[in-house]
Every structure is written in C-alpha cells, then in structure tokens.
Write a structure and sequence with these properties.
The protein is α+β, with helices and mostly antiparallel strands. The chain is built from seven helices and ten strands.
Amino acid sequence: METELKLRFTSREEISKLWNAEWFTDILIPASEKTEFYDTKYFETKDRALLTHSASIRVREIRDGDYIHTVKIGGTSRNGLHQRFEWNLETTEDEFDAEVFSQHAVTDGDPSEILEEVLAAVSGKELTMICRTSFERTLSLAGFGDSLLEICFDYGSLFAKNAQENLCELEIELKQGDVRDVLALGDEIIAMTGAVKDDRGKYARCLALLDS
C-alpha cells in the first residue's frame, strides 16, 4: 500500500527555499537527488467503471519511449495523508493493456484479487483519456526519525477539457519505517513554510476540473 503525505505550496520559490534550507538538506541522502519530467494521462471508460470501483488507470511517460502504467484502488485521504493500493508496470508501450498489466505489474504485497476485479470491470471496454498532468519532479531519498522516505517536489500543470490548474506540491512517501515519521516531517515543514495539507491528489483535482 502506498502511503504519502501531500503538501500544497503557493509558489515554486517557496519549495526551492525549503529544499535548500540547511536543516532540510541534512536529512536528504547524498547522491539520491534527481530531476525528471513527467507527462501523465488518466483513462476512464464511458460508463466510469473505474470511478465506480474507486480506481484509476494512469500512463506516465517518464522519458522518451519509457512509460510506467499504474493502477490505484481505494484507500483513504485524511489530513493530507493518502493511503491506497497500487500496482506498477514499467514498459516501452504507451497503450494500457489489462491482460499484460495483470501478468506483469508489481506491487508491495497488495491483494491481487482487488486488482483483478477492477481489470475485469474494464475488460472489453474502450479506455479514453479524460485528463492529464505535465510536471517537473525533483526527488530525493531522506532519512527522518527511524524511517526511509522519498520526498518529491512537483511543479507543473493539470489539464481537463479546456481547464488548466497550476501544480505546486511536495509529496513525502514512506518507503520503510513508521508513518508517524511522515507526519512529523510534514508538521515541521508546515511550521516553517506556508504549506497546507492537501486531501486531493492530482487525479482528484483533475476530476474536479473535469466536472466544473
């Protein structure tokens, strides 16, 4: 299960200032920082079968010709903390194939029967892109408390129909350890910046644009 805290910022400069603060750089693991550019498409069926199952299908281009296909299902979002079941498949194909995904996707021990139920719900149905995101991600591993975390700074845009919204957020994902360390680091960042906890992920924000 994916566990991460989302913090929304008002400006890129504010996150950059945080990223370069001495106390923050001290928790980052040396040589783990990198910057990537993501173009991401979200898909749905005409009858919104995925939404009915609290699921999403995402195809993310991470570099020329390389993609990550992702299915996320269910979960909770409270006080900025998001927890969901997640499966991923790295591939050179840009088109999502439910059968291939079922056979080769990897996860962190999430129950396969939940994935199979969602894939069965979209079997034989056309998947259509309904929204997308485009952003730059700067990420680094960090050690905080007794936990290993991945910290991502995302800056770019969300798109749905003719609407567009700015994206400027920080994600703190638990890789190993205790979720309390994720929350504690989030509280420290909030105390030193203008960040606010965000219960809506990128897809939820896109859906809000789509339905507005």
